[in-house]
Specification:
The structure is a single chain. By secondary structure, the chain is mostly beta strands. Helices cover 0% and strands 52% of the residues. It has no helices and 11 strands. The strands form 2 sheets. Strands 2, 4, 5, 6, 9, 10 and 11 form a 7-stranded mixed beta sheet that branches. Strands 1-3-8-7 form a 4-stranded antiparallel beta sheet, with no helix packed on it. The mean pLDDT is 97.
Length: 118
């Protein structure tokens, strides 16, 4: 199983970035996908999730209205569109996957750094 995240970088506050995660080795269309982030010295935080049929999404309160998670089952990719970025969004962002809400996150990507400067 491989989850390959990309799209991170450095941007000024108020700017936008789009993260992508390409999955292989799983039946992507049957998995719940998510994005976590971890800032230095902080615990890993769940940012957003999207169910297999893309009809159910959930967001951390800190990103609601600014971030949008989406998926393309045909391409086995999940994206996180991040707008109105703030310095506190600075973190390493990880793509993750699980089969069901009853299970823990089973697969993790390598992370991509997002840095927002003020």
């Amino acid at each position: 199983v491989q989850l390959q995240a990309s799209g991170g970088g450095e941007v000024q506050a108020g700017g936008s970035l789009r993260l992508s995660c390409a999955a292989s080795g799983i039946t992507f269309s049957t998995y719940i996908m998510g994005w976590y982030r971890q800032a230095p010295g902080e615990q890993r935080e769940l940012v957003a999730t999207i169910h297999s049929n893309a009809r159910i999404t959930n967001y951390a309160d800190s990103v609601k209205g600014r971030f949008t998670i989406s998926r393309d089952n045909a391409k086995a990719t999940v994206c996180l569109q991040m707008n109105s970025l703030k310095p506190e969004d600075t973190a390493v962002y990880y793509c993750t996957a699980k089969r069901s809400t009853r299970f823990d996150w089973a697969h993790w990507g390598q992370g991509t750094q997002v840095t927002v400067s003020s």
